[in-house]
Amino acid sequence: QTCALPILIQTPAALLQINQPGSWTASTPIGGAGGLQRDTLRSLSKGFRFGVAVCYGTGSAQDYVLQAGPIMAWQLLQESPPVFQLGGADMWAVLNATYLIDPASQAITTFTSSMQGIAAAIINAAVARNPLPIDTATGAAGTATRTYNWYDFMFAGTALQDLTQAAGGPDVYLRPYFPDNSHIRFQPIIGNPYITQSGAPLLFDQGSNLIETRSAGDAHQVAGTWYARGNGIEAGTLFASATDPTLQANGWPLLENTDTSQTNLTDLTALAAVASGDLALYSRPVETWTSWVRTDGRHPLGTYQPGLFANYNINNHPLIPVG
């Protein structure tokens, strides 16, 4: 349940992400004009007990919620005049603190569905254990399988993130929204495998709604062969691999890497999907773009969300080639 406090917020920031927790920060003066008193701020600074929502709009239920979730960190930025900073994450962070299976049950759970359906089942199983404000997730039927054992001590958020990294794994975004004036809920948006939006594709045009784009590259995890390590010990360890000979054929040295994040898996097909997913992502250097766009342009803030594909019209860039 939401409760609007009369507080002056300075420089709020929100990071929205798919397939992993997002984050937010907000600063406020202590006491004085617009600030809450010291004891009030200290009472709010209880990890996971209270939360903050960063919204864009006029203060109504129609506002766009950029980010919302529990307070997880706080600090005094400066003593004179006193400025207090709060920081936190979204509901994925709570899934990262909720076991998919209650270890006391000593249960083993198998989900058989599409990868999208397994993601939905993981979310719904977590909400069944922990009554979070997350809507019921849905996904298509299918024949993919994932088995989770109580002794894996697997957090629901970890299981969900691991699934998104496998070949064919779905993109997942927990979208915060106002169902009414006094609550915030989260809608699980699960791709198949990608998140899509109806209507014309997003277009960010240099000189119009696109202000600036900066690119960065990272080759730390580049490898032509990826292994996925599964369950087992020593010679009994299960694994799968995926190889692309293109790098060595074009002059690169032998580059190998191992994904050890899924040692709960006992299904070789699932392990092969993990290795193939790593190879697809890291067989080349990863290049990322950071763009600054107008909030009042062709696509106003609130009309799109993380995970969508967009077209960028960029000309005469110092690093990004045309086309």
Folded structure, characterized:
The protein has helices at residues 38-44, 91-95, 115-129, 156-165, 246-249, 268-282, and strands at 10-15, 23-29, 51-56, 64-79, 82-89, 108-113, 144-149, 172-180, 183-190, 202-205, 210-218, 225-229, 239-243, 256-259, 286-293, 310-313. By secondary structure, the protein is an alpha+beta fold. A five-stranded antiparallel sheet has the order 1-2-5-4-3. The protein has a three-stranded mixed sheet with strand order 13-12-14. Strands 6-7 form a two-stranded antiparallel ribbon. α3 (115-129) packs antiparallel against α4 (156-165). It starts with 9 loop residues before the first strand and ends in a 10-residue tail after the last strand.
